[in-house]
Amino acid sequence: MRRIEGRHNPLLKELRAAFAHAERTTAGDFAVEGFKIIEEAIRSGVRLSAVFVRDSAVERAGRLLPQIGSQVETIALPDKLFDSLVPSDAPQGVAALVRPRPWTLDDILERGQLGPMLVTAGLQDPGNLGTILRSAEAFGCAGVVLGEGTVSAFNSKVVRASAGSVFRIPWIFGKDAAPSLVALCTRLKERGVRLLATSSHKGTALDQADLKGTLAIFIGSEGSGLPREIASHIEAAVAIPHAPQVESLNAGVAASILLYEAARQRR
Predict the structure, then answer these.
(1) What is the pTM for the complete model shown?
(2) CATH of segment(s) 2-99
(3) Which residues make up the CATH 3.30.1330.30 domain(s) of the chain?
(4) CA dist., res. 207 & res. 1, Å (int)
(5) Is the CATH number of domain 105-266 3.40.1280.10?
(6) Segment 207-264, tens digit of pLDDT
(7) In 3-state terms, the chain is what percent helix, strand and coil (to 5)?
């Protein structure tokens, strides 16, 4: 384990920037933090480029080292320096740079027999997106497309809420599939994909909706729902019944319910 004490080390700068901006490094890695998340990354078979350990957590981190390949650089850091790099208020003492799998829209479409794909439009709450990724894996979703305005899947709160699913479920940024969500709608229709959306009040009742076949379910922002230009392409809305005094369900819950119902229908 190599020790670094200077905060200006290039590798530490990459880790700091990856956490701060929820983006990939120049090498294509993103930053994760915590023992459970790193163990999930290892279990998922994704590539670890470097592991950073707080001095006071070196002994506990010993259980990780046998699971990490010898080619992965492991770095010990003074507690204060480590804490300045990670976003958590109560750091567990271990962080890593991880290389995500390079999924494509075609990869997701090829999995259409497993379940629907999800497309997010302006989803901004990291907890909701993490929940969606976790439910997508749990209920056999084909994959997730993160449309414009959606929080980055590299956000540390998204990674934590996904409980490891961010490493396994196919997901892509919408900009890598089409120039815009409107263009994505057109492309999906050309591929024979039905476009559905959730609704808090109007639409086909959940127990009467057909969620089989090749389809994409669009999830809008927590406050304003789907943009009008996207809603005009939607072929049907699915309403989830709930108590009238509740205005609506949050995006993560609504998406999870639809994915469960889609999986139930396929069974």
Answers:
(1) 0.93
(2) 3.30.1330.30
(3) 2-99
(4) 56
(5) yes
(6) 899 999 999 999 998 777 888 899 999 999 999 888 888 877 889 999 999 999 999 9
(7) 40, 20, 40
